[in-house]
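Appendix B, Record 12. Input sequence as logged:
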Amino acid sequence: MLQRCFRKCFIEHPESVGENYFTHGIKALYFGSILFVYGTCEVLHAIVPGIDIFKLRGTTSADQLENLCDQLRERKKDD
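Logged structural output:
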């Protein structure tokens, strides 16, 4: 049972998007870091509504999140 759990978590899951453990970890860190930055920008905007980092960059948080979601969807399609 423990071996099955290990295989499912560390081998089958990364393989489901065509990656190995290390590649999957790097990509997960990338997406997690982006989400952390986006979240920090939104918290700052919630505290000081006049500060909108996304608007300063000529975009919106919704557009950037949609782009990020598209990247995640594409990973699944490549499998």
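The chain has a mean pLDDT of 91.
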